[in-house]
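Please review this pair:
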Amino acid sequence: MTEKPAPGPRQTILDEMNDRTREVFRRVVEGYLDTGGPVGSRSLTRTMSEKVSAATVRNVMSDLEYLGLLDSPHVSAGRIPTELGLRMFVDGLLEVGELGEEDRARLDETLGSNSGRDTGALLDRIGSALSGVTEGASLVLAPKHEAPIKHIDFVALGPDRALTVLVFADGHVENRLFTPPLGQTPSSLREAANFLNAMAEGKTLRELRARLEQEIARNRRHLDDLAAALVESGLAVWDGPENGPERLIVRGRSKLLGGGTAAEEDLERIRSLFDDLERKRDIAEFLELAEDGQGVRIFIGSENKLFSLSGSSLVVSPYMNADRKIVGAVGVIGPTRLNYGRIVPIVDYTAQLVGRLLSDQA
């Protein structure tokens, strides 16, 4: 279900821990994920499998802090896991539960309301259902249009704005706004379009991008730098309308912002997170993150390149169409103290559900 990490220094540290150290580390992380607050040595002594003193537990916690796995938010407030500690826990100690029958039933209700062939409405319902089940914020990246390309054109709209017009073989037309490189001219626009049209026919946009990288490297001397930059930026950047063929669906903002127990700084991080999402920053990277592996992936804090802030986690899984090609992704975002053991199977099942629904529509 989840992608297995490659052996590395983190796993080595975990393997070298003795049973007591491993248990202290696990209980601190689980306590933090459960309460959101620091875990003290006295509370641990009451739950340890062996009888140990609070002083012994404090020494172990100090060692774990030295290794960068725990941190002390205040002098006498106990310990919380660092991002590195959470990463190690997720990779080596996380116990993923089974999908609950109630959660499964709530997600399956989406199937019952699947009338018509409106993919956008379907994915919107999926996002709402996922947010409702997890009590968090859900993300759904809708599929791109994958028909072969018939023609490409570039239209200048101003000194810092241009339009890519994509005409597909099935008659579908997309308009993509982008910022062209400085110094672009009408001739460079035509040259870039001619360069693309010579290789585009019969290829999907994804296939064209792969071919494009090879051709630009091979023909750089024949294609001036300005036209090459225009070609690259014109196809790599999408800034289309909200109801376009590829869009990011965000559901559950109020659930994250409405929690009365969250600290003010946590709320500010979440507000910044949604500001990023609503501006659609790096929308394509969301799918690229998922494409690195077919299972559920967990990104903790600053590991998550999609967002500009640290302090949030993303649990994401790709979904496939009837041809077993990855065409989109679903995920859940929230504070780093997400209940990963419960969220992972929910995201995994939702991705499978979306893939099945899209296949049924094909």
In short: The chain has three domains: 9-92, 101-143+247-361, 149-236. The first helix runs from residue 9 to 16.
